[in-house]
Specification:
single chain; 435 residues; mainly alpha; two-stranded parallel ribbon; 18 helices; 66% helix; globular
Length: 435
């Protein structure tokens, strides 16, 4: 855009990206009125903005302001055509938008998702081969079947946790919410004599209500999600004890069908459902407008608001989705045990967050992959199973798992640092993906 010299660069950068988004998504009238008030001095500005309507847009940035604009545009799926550094500016090279690191302004190479997924697959296979070498019976069909059938609950929660972390939030109540959902399932079937599928609907409803409450309190009252969900962790666990009178509800074969390995496959229906959740989650995050909104919110929520988009509905919906998936995890866990345990899911929130972080999702928001979170679940589950098979004690298992999490986060931070400061070959090797 050509602007008059009397207009400050910062609002121009912000409203330029806002106008692109607004015209792309139909928020024409609201933003147009706002723009007319801000830029009455620039006669050609509104004509230029009008020309953006219906276009497939890219971003060209120059200097520190342009780099910030390009970062927002890249997170929202726009093509970053060029990015040139202004030598007069003192710029932190770490501000480069994902996939943009060339200070000369050349067209950057785009990151391809399958490459990072392949890297996670290689890491998981490496862990498998390591424990296969340490234990003779580890690489067997039986072991892999048990491994697959033990992770559906953690898998679906990790999928939902990816969405929450992408928007810059966190949910510490998922383990307790899974326990309450499973406890409700057991109470409804044992005490009220409901059929299994009717009890499943109640279980999912409990999870959805808990997640929705987390979202409403956190988003509407603007309380950090860490505090809200930490309090909800205790509240929901107490409700699980009240529902079951602090006793395990034994249900039996009526709930075990989901966790029973299917003939000829070796994996359960629960595992197949969890895989479908992963596929649906990845498509939603990377291929839909809703997913783009989430990435944009996590990258720069203020820019989304300037675009005329209210981020509150998306943020609340993400917490509700995670609550629903926690309820589904409660169904899987109860089916696997054949009983409803009020202590189910203790500490599960830490495992879910660890899996998502190992998968490369940023704790600061704006970047994540559901498929990579699934590989994070596989890595953690394989570590736990492998350490148990080689006879490692519980303290050693905890120390090893914690060390792996710290190493994964450190490598991710190192990769981010190299993407902005390192040599070109290292940037190509560790370049940061652009969600």
């Amino acid at each position: 855009l050509t602007t008059s010299s009397g207009i400050h660069a910062t609002p121009i950068a912000e409203y330029t990206i806002a106008s692109m988004l607004a015209y792309a998504h139909g928020f024409h009238r609201t933003l147009r009125a706002q723009l007319r008030g801000e830029w009455q001095r620039n006669a050609g500005f509104m004509d230029t903005v009008d020309a953006l309507r219906g276009k497939t847009l890219g971003v060209v940035g120059y200097g520190s302001i342009g780099r910030e604009t390009a970062r927002i545009g890249a997170a929202l799926g726009m093509e970053v055509l060029a990015l040139k550094r202004n030598p007069a500016d003192h710029i932190d090279a770490g501000w480069n938008p994902p996939g943009v690191g060339d200070p000369e302004g050349r067209i950057p190479r785009r990151w391809h998702g399958p490459g990072e997924c392949a890297a996670m697959l290689v890491i998981w296979l490496g862990v498998l081969l390591l424990f296969g070498a340490l234990s003779r019976n580890f690489l067997s069909v039986g072991t892999l079947s048990v491994l697959a059938n033990s992770i559906p609950g953690l898998t679906v929660i990790a999928a939902g946790m990816t969405f929450v972390l992408v928007i810059g939030g966190i949910d510490l109540s998922v383990g307790s919410l899974m326990g309450l959902s499973g406890a409700t399932l057991g109470a409804v079937m044992v005490d009220w004599n409901w059929p299994f599928w009717g009890a499943v609907l109640v279980c999912l409803g409990v999870g959805l209500a808990g997640g929705l409450l987390n979202g409403i309190v956190s988003v509407r009252l603007r309380i950090p999600s860490f505090i809200v969900t930490l309090g909800m962790l205790e509240i929901v666990r107490g409700l699980a004890y009240l529902v079951t009178n602090s006793q395990t509800k034994y249900i039996g074969t009526a709930v075990e069908g989901l966790a029973t390995p299917l003939w000829g496959l070796g994996v359960s229906a629960a595992f197949i459902i969890a895989l479908l959740v992963i596929v649906a989650g990845q498509v939603a995050l990377s291929r839909t407008l809703f997913g783009r909104y989430l990435v944009a919110i996590g990258t720069n929520e203020q820019a989304v608001r300037l675009a005329g988009i209210n981020p509150e509905w998306a943020k609340t919906g993400v917490f509700a989705l995670l609550g629903l998936l926690s309820g589904l995890a409660g169904v899987f866990y109860t089916s696997r045990l054949g009983s409803a345990d009020p202590n189910a899911g203790v500490g599960l929130e830490l495992s879910a967050i660890a899996a998502v972080v190992i998968g490369g999702t940023s704790l600061m928001g704006g970047r994540g992959s559901v498929v990579n979170s699934f590989f994070g679940v596989l890595i953690i589950a394989t570590l736990e199973a492998g350490l148990a098979q080689v006879g490692a004690s519980e303290p050693v298992k905890r120390i090893t798992t914690g060390a792996v999490i710290i190493i994964a986060v450190s490598l991710d931070a190192w990769r981010h640092h190299i993407a902005g400061h390192g040599f070109a070959p290292l940037r190509r090797l560790f370049g940061r993906p652009s969600s």
